[in-house]
Amino acid sequence: MSLPTRTPPQTPSYMRSTASSSSRKTPNPTTPPTTPTKKPKRPSSLTGHDRQIALLLGLQTSMSIKPAKPNLPHGFSTLPAEIRLQIYEQVIHTSTTLPISIDGDPKTRHPWLWPALLRVSRLIRHEFAYIFYTQGHFTFTMRSHLCFAGLQGWVNRLPPNHRLFLTRNPNLHIDLKVPAMRHFWWDTPAEIIDQDAWKECRPYGNMYAVAGCQHQEHFLSFCRLANWWLWCAKPIHNGIRWNYRFSKKVHYRPVEGMVGLLKEGIGSFALPCVRKEEKTSGKQKALMKKEALNILGDVDRAFGSYVPPRHHDAYAIITGDRRKEWEDKFAELVGVLEKW
């Protein structure tokens, strides 16, 4: 007796492909397709200034200078980009120094902050901005007591790519006013501590918890410096090198003024009244350290221009023991910063 043959189970209808899907189905290839390997791009041999110039010259393919009145002669737009860049350099080098007065108001304007050439056309703005912000000699004069708000406001309003150009400029100078006397910055404390000073100090502590008007001045100095140092530590500003200079005008006792600047101004972060009330974290101090050492180094070099060397005949007459006092205080401040 033969056993009945078993028929294989049929695929349910809901699992079967329709005629439409079967017609669109591609047959399985016998060999997997091979994707052609792309040849790696050759890295550019241009770096730094040469690479940026090459990029600017490459903008000619996507941008052009369209004169407002084509029927008039417009020889500048027909010049090669290399010639235009040389003209921009002559404009910058003719204006050797661009003195800019910056006070506490971030809305301070100056014609050289935004030159007219930056507003002519898109291509000229790209070309001139690189030359202007990398080769221009800027001198920012601080009129207010260690207040960098105006300078910060100017840099913050620059386009991001123009701010990056500043990282290649070694000619950025900040001119700070040296006090005429050792223990007084200005004639009256009210010129330093205004009604909005507590807002500047709020991120770093309570200024009114500090006893004494003079100690409040010290705390305000620290808060303004801390805000500036943290701003310089931001990634977009971290590569900018600021050179600090110190005004010597109308100072009848310059050495006394420099000692006061070091102890009660730039070195305010080491004063007991400030260290007791300031609330900065260890992470913030680590970020502030770089720019703090930078300004300390510049003020030390400036003091060397005030004081003659030890072997000079006028050393004892002019300075007395001020040199030793300066060296001890400078070493103390550097030691405090190294622990941050």
Automatic annotation (TrEMBL):
<feature type="compositionally biased region" description="Low complexity">
    <location>
        <begin position="13"/>
        <end position="28"/>
    </location>
</feature>
<dbReference type="InterPro" id="IPR038883">
    <property type="entry name" value="AN11006-like"/>
</dbReference>
<dbReference type="Pfam" id="PF20150">
    <property type="entry name" value="2EXR"/>
</dbReference>
<feature type="compositionally biased region" description="Pro residues">
    <location>
        <begin position="1"/>
        <end position="11"/>
    </location>
</feature>
<feature type="domain" description="2EXR">
    <location>
        <begin position="74"/>
        <end position="139"/>
    </location>
</feature>
<feature type="region of interest" description="Disordered">
    <location>
        <begin position="1"/>
        <end position="47"/>
    </location>
</feature>
<protein>
    <recommendedName>
        <fullName>2EXR domain-containing protein</fullName>
    </recommendedName>
</protein>
<dbReference type="InterPro" id="IPR045518">
    <property type="entry name" value="2EXR"/>
</dbReference>
